[in-house]
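Researcher: Sit down with what I've pasted below and flag anything odd:
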Amino acid sequence: MDFFDVVIVGSGPAGMGAAFEIIKGKPNLRILMIDQEPFSTGGMRNDCKMNFTYPIGFPEEYWEKQEADRALNQVIDYLKPTILPKANIEIYSKRAERLGCSLVDISQAHLGTDGGLVLIKRLLAELNALGVTLSLGEKMLSVDDTRRFIVTDKRDIGYETLLIAPGRKGFHFLQMMLQSLGVPFVDNIVDIGLRIETRFEHYPIVGDYYDPKFYFPEKVRTFCTNSGNAHVVKERYVTSRGDVWYSVNGHAYSADTHESNGLVNFAILKTVRFTAPLASGQAFAENLGLQAALMGGNKPLMQRVGDFRLGSRSKENSFNSDLFDFPPTLKDCCPGDISLAMPAKILRAIWKAMKNLDTIVPGVLHPSTIMYYPEIKLYANKPVYLDRNFRVTDRVFLAGDGAGTSRGITAAWASGIRAARGMVERIG
């Protein structure tokens, strides 16, 4: 059996943040980082948009501002971001406030999907130079915390301390690990919404503020705005029963390396929390995703705003004529009627928010604007933690978006730092 002082499962920002922090405190420890994918995963691979202002990305039940700010300063030291300029924030904020909405002013950096890959390559090279063993394409299958070893699809690996740090796509995997460890958890929160795609001139705020964060009544918000060379993509998910469904997402390439396609996309999401009875947000999301896949012929749905306002489904010719003057960037998508697939209460709240947004930034509800469905963000598992360092058993720690300690690249890295400090203390 191979043995390491530290085993890190997941090579995204949470795992990287932990590895760098552990090396800083204990440079001679044997550290192994594994990932089931044949490449380093995590949010830095997709658009690499980073926020550096609390509380964005920091769940407030786990993070106080002072602690988050200290961690963000460390993240900045490692990632060396170039903060994007902003303009006219007061104008948009006043418009929002008059409608009972708000715009959050956030320090942001954006590398794009291609720039994120360059950053990942640099960070992995630094970890390798510091002695971290990286094993890509190795999948963790189970854990025996009594005897302190994990089983992968390639070998058994002993550990002194273990960090499980999956992102959102590792949601189901983490649930299985928590169940096997006997760690109580809930997953009662989920974000359900649309991905909006329109022309730059119909959402010109992105020229002043790259990823504007608007908050609306009824727990609706904008999220993950992309502009320049921007694209909508689909993400494949598989349920525990083996059923396949798709969520949509968005990304953009670096402005330095790609010419603009003149389009903007962003998510508009409503947070749904189940309390009585306490239900699984993941199960709810999966059922909505499967229903959309059924209606779309195993593809996500898309509908033009002009058709939606007329109460009509979109058809193939809706995307080629009249005022519908740009093709969708997600070609593998089915024109249809989103109102048949999306729960009415959620759709009503989102449509109200979109009308407010069209008052704040006139033009976003142009007839050509495309609404893609579903965009679903699993809010993460909420395990019972034993201390402030996200420890769940004597020697097992969690970090990252899948574990509910963060939502985004910078906060995930910060959560890895906190977990690492607890791991170093356990090793002694």
Notes: The mean pLDDT is 94.
